[in-house]
Amino acid sequence: MKRACVIGWPVAHSRSPVIHRYWLKLYGLDGAYEQEAVRPEEIEDFLHSLGQRGYEGANVTLPHKEAALAGADRPDAAATAIGAANTLWLDDKGLLHASNTDAYGFMTHLSAEAPDWNKGKRPVTVLGAGGAARAILHGLLEAGASKILLTNRTEDRAKALAQSFGSRVSLIPWGDRNRALAGCGLLVNATSLGMTGKPPLDLDLSALPLDATVPDIVYSPLQTPLLAAAKARGNRTVDGLGMLLHQAVPGFERWFGVRPEVTPELRAYVAAHLGAS
Ligand SMILES: NC(=O)c1ccc[n+]([C@@H]2O[C@H](COP(=O)([O-])OP(=O)(O)OC[C@H]3O[C@@H](n4cnc5c(N)ncnc54)[C@H](OP(=O)(O)O)[C@@H]3O)[C@@H](O)[C@H]2O)c1
Question: Which of 271, 192, 88, 85 is nearest to 262 (CA)?
């Protein structure tokens, strides 16, 4: 039996088991997907013993994504550029490979829902400078975004991100975020604002062009206040669940040998688990 797991501290909140166990059952595979709660001081040893523990590989969630990159023998270009890994697999020589599939997940869902998101090469506004924002910046720049306006409450975090991604990223003070919407073709919420239990995102959409697309990577609730407000004024919206589902695809294929599909049935199944509609 092939086995994979998600490693985190804590780990119980992870949605990965719901997705991977759905696929294991759907494709009738002899496999298992488990949860491993690993303390920060134990992560290095755990990664070294992944194979001895019987795992083909793993997903990695907070707070271990940087440690997963540091502990890998073969990080790929995405993990290196993003500075964190969320997907690990062992090769037949026992070398530990690492990738970050968040950018892939975000871009795959965006391209499916809004294939023309970069039409006219208008600026993209990104809110947030945490781990997810870093992956999204990488994905957007790789896909040809010509100008990204980045804004974050803690300016130093945005500065660090802008410095590592180069001249196509410009900083907008958090206090001026409403003005950053004028003329943009894509507005991405990569903060945790709007998530259940977090404060709402305070943003005035008046300056946002009506033909701009608005992805929110928060997936609980599925319809965030930002998405509801954007939809109400006629903007196309993209929710965060698609990113979550698509980012799981490469890992499952590595561990279990089948490239799984993201279908409306999977979406409905995971949405029901999230308690979302
Ligand atoms: N759909 C998906 O597959 C997917 C994948 C990854 C993450 N996510 C979601 O994306 C969100 C961000 O995740 P992350 O890993 O990037 O988290 P993170 O590293 O903790 O970053 C959180 C971001 O939210 C901002 N923020 C938090 N509270 C704020 C407040 N009160 N006012 C203004 N800004 C605030 C932070 O700003 P500061 O820098 O100023 O603190 C930072 O930019 C989470 O809701 C997560 O669930 C979704």
Answer: 271
